[in-house]
Amino acid sequence: MEDKEKTKQESSPVPDISDKIWDFFTSVKLTIVILIIIALTSIVGTIIEQDAEPEKNIQLLAKFFGDSMAPTFYNIFLKLDFMNMYHSWWFIALLLLFCVNLIVCTLDRLPKTLKIINTPMKPMGETVIKTLPVKKELRVKAGLAGAKDAFLNSLSAAGFRVFEAAEGDSVELYTQKGRYSRLGLYIVHLSIFLIFIGAIIGARFGFNAMLNIPEGGTSDVAYQRGGKQIPLGFTVKCNWYRTDYYGDTDMPQEFQSELVIIENGREILTKVIEVNSPLTYKGIKLYQSSYGLMSDVEGVFDLRVTPRGGQETAVYAKLGDTFVIPGTNVKVEIINFSPALAKDPMTGKLFTYNEKMMVNPAVGVRITEPGKPEYTGWIMRRYPETGLLPDGNKIKLDDYWGVEYTGLQVSKDPGIGIIYFAAILMSLGLYMAFFMSNRKLWIRLTGEKGAVRIALGGTANKNRLSFEKDVEKILSKATHLIEGSPQIPAHRERSKK
Amino acid sequence: MTSAVFFDISGLSYLLAMFVYIVFLASRKHAVGAAATTITIFGLAFQSIALILRWIDSYAYWMTNSPSSGMILALLRSAPLRNLYESLVFFVWCLIFIHLIVEFKYKVRSLGAFVTPLAALTLVFIDISGTSKDIQPLVPALQSNWLLFHVLLSFLGYAAFGVSFGAGLAHLTLLTESRKEAAYIFWSIIVGVFITVLVAMGLDFLNAPPAKPDEVIQSYFLKSTFKSASGGVAVISWIVSIAFIFVVWRFGLGFKKILSGLSLTTDMLEEITYKSIAVGFPLFTVGGLLMGAIWANSAWGKYWSWDPKETWSLITWFVYALYLHARFVKGWRGKKVAVLAVVGFIAVFFTYIGVNLWLSGLHAYGSE
Lengths: 497, 368
Prior knowledge:
The complex is a heterodimer of chains A (497) and B (368).
Chain A: H1 7-10, H2 17-26, H3 28-47, H4 54-65, H5 70-79, H6 89-118, H7 126-129, E1 134-141, H8 144-157, E2 161-167, E3 170-177, H9 184-205, E4 207-214, E5 218-223, E6 229-245, E7 252-263, E8 266-273, E9 279-281, E10 284-293, E11 300-306, E12 313-317, E13 322-324, E14 331-338, E15 341-343, E16 350-352, E17 362-368, E18 375-380, E19 394-401, E20 404-412, H10 416-435, E21 439-448, E22 451-460, H11 464-484
Antiparallel strand pairs in A: 1-22, 2-3, 3-21, 4-20, 5-6, 6-7, 7-8, 9-10, 10-20, 11-12, 11-19, 13-14, 14-17, 15-16, 17-18, 21-22
Helix pairs in contact in A: 3-6, 4-5, 6-9, 8-11, 9-10
Chain B: H1 3-27, H2 30-65, H3 71-78, H4 84-106, H5 112-129, H6 146-175, H7 182-207, H8 231-260, H9 266-300, H10 308-328, H11 335-363
Helix pairs in contact in B: 1-2, 1-5, 2-3, 2-4, 4-5, 4-6, 5-6, 5-7, 6-9, 6-11, 7-8, 9-10, 10-11
């Protein structure tokens, strides 16, 4: 908006070293160069998979450089830290350089903007008013005082605070609005700076870690990349983990775990967490991040058994256990389990289609009753009708508990408050910078034999079209007021532009 | 699925509008221009109906799966911005909407010839990329109130950038004088590549066998040309495209004559480019970057993790920040900033489509 190149010549003829450094950092060329370097190196980082196993990126590089050259290029990129480039010293140095450049440029330009904001407006006289970018001229039949009041009224209705200067037969009204919108871009720059501060605080005093807890298990530490243990300061217990699916599909609807926070042996807090709904305790957040099935663990079947015509009761049993359906002679033996059972549509054979996830758990049962034929079958959680036995008794598989673990993302970020504040500040600054403008208006009213000559001029640092529309409104409201007032004849003549 | 019919009608209208806008460029007849605008408005009306119908369908779908949720929650969760297909459709809607605003505000019809091909390209891409059009259940990560606002604002921003891309290209066309100029070579290659991709995707579309109803993922993208199973076709495609881009470069100055005969002025294009970026930049910053970061933090505990999508959106932001600083601080006008506006939209394309298309593809080995 203002031209900054001129200031350089005004400084002392023999620039000392600090001036030179200042000039280096205030140059927009530096900004452009830094932004381009950050952008180009970032592109490399989006192509090379970050923090991946070496084989993956060697295969990737082979696509560009051929199989024989790939390992060589891999080693070159590795030496240059491109395999984890966003955390490398040179990338962070670039970001810091960008930040310094941003601060210095901002500080360099701020005083000038403040001067513009703080310089009071002055009346300008008719000749200057007629040269402004937005201008209008007209004559109305009215007294000077009446016309002035009409304009004061219409301007203050539009939110302008008006100053006036009288000079002989004429009065000049001058006013401005939105001069602080000139600070919008500085607020955006400040918010970028705050994001840097927040990120540094987060990196220095916070952590990101993972934690897998089996159902029923507890932990008081989390694990960072590379296996480093982070003490939590309290104990987390996972009561259960559960995936809900949409209808009878394998499409997950919700991942949930019930967590308990235990401190000094007391249960402080219990919460069911979901993907977009973490648990927060003492600044540490626990997010639902993954889950899995443990292969070498024996769990407990949580079964709901309803004898024919009777009440539902809960039965807990392990693989190989046998129990009696209450009030009957029917014996149920648990003989098999599948985490995800499906029927082959061609052969009708049952098979397990997923060993790693409990997508569609099923329990295999053998049912015996003295004097009756033996029944064996599968009871599936997704299809409760499979639990309706031939003899009219009902068994529902509620859960196979103790075999899944919940994967938690554990993070602490004391800088997050600053980040959120910066986000709000940036939104505000962008609004000021792009959707508000500094509008200035001068209106010269000159009395001429029962009429008033009006010369209006204005400037806006942005969005001139909408300013022109607003000026039209102010003008038409004022002329309307002049016509409507009783002491003035309702006759008006407009001078041609 | 009544919405599909309305989507098809709107898509055909935009395709037709594209041809009529181009005829208008060549003929300069007022009636042709008015027809192009009418067809576009007609398409937008149909697409709006289609979006509402789809929202109603998704709402019903959501309620069958989560009968206990309240109306506002269900409306938020079922807004038709939930997968690649829906977001592409919404992008087209925003693009046309913003284009019409610009057309009426600045009384420039000819810009339509630059913007409607972008809409057509997107619509054809939907059909051949194999993005599923079904109403799908919402995966847990997307079940957030941020989804609607994040996507809504990002796409309004993208569409505004799309308009600045069209205006920037038209501007470059008007400003360049000789075939040896870097800016001329730049725009002629961009226009050449753009038309080539549009034609290649049109061929994919014509060659695509009728989809089987149970076939969810099917990709015909560039399979009839550059990625053809027959090596000969692929080689010919490359040769023809390079020849075509050369032709655009060779005869591009004629294009300038057509444009300069219209009501377009360089001042107007400069202003449209700037205004679109001035609207797009804050929308993209707040909706795309800031809300995206806040959402990531509430879902995963990290507001920024340098994944390709995030990184590309930051790169996009840098390009437009560069545009604004070059314009305001250095006082650049004309060719240099128009090039930046075009580059900015290429970055938008990468952020939105390229990352999904190529970068995830590069990391998924053996899938090609």
